[in-house]
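ESCALATION

Customer reports they have been waiting on this structure for their group meeting. Please prioritize. Original submission:
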Amino acid sequence: MIRESLAVPASRCSQQRRSAFSMLEIIVALTIATLFAMTGLAFVQTHGETAKSRACEGNRATLQRDVELYEHETGRLPGRTLRELADQDYSGVNLPTCPASGNAYGLDQGEVTCPTHGK
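Update from on-call: job pushed to the front of the queue and completed.
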């Protein structure tokens, strides 16, 4: 008789609500969230590198125009380090550097080059 009163009917167990998530459910949810975060991070990094590459192209185009202006005004090309262009009449006192690497631009056979991205 005591045993019968302690037993819980099967129908009552199935109707009880769970009050917490299992460890497996939490691990699965965190794994899915991590995968989404990694995918988003890769997307942002790729576009960041593309933006830096395009900014480098813009800097090289501006410096190339300044090289041509310098050559037109003086009759000669500036040196390989482009220091002659560090003037208010050309690129300003500070020459731009590559946004991706921070390296200085150079001059190779009349073409402005970037050590990271090339011509």
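Sent to customer with the following note: The two ends are 93 Å apart (CA to CA).
Escalation resolved.
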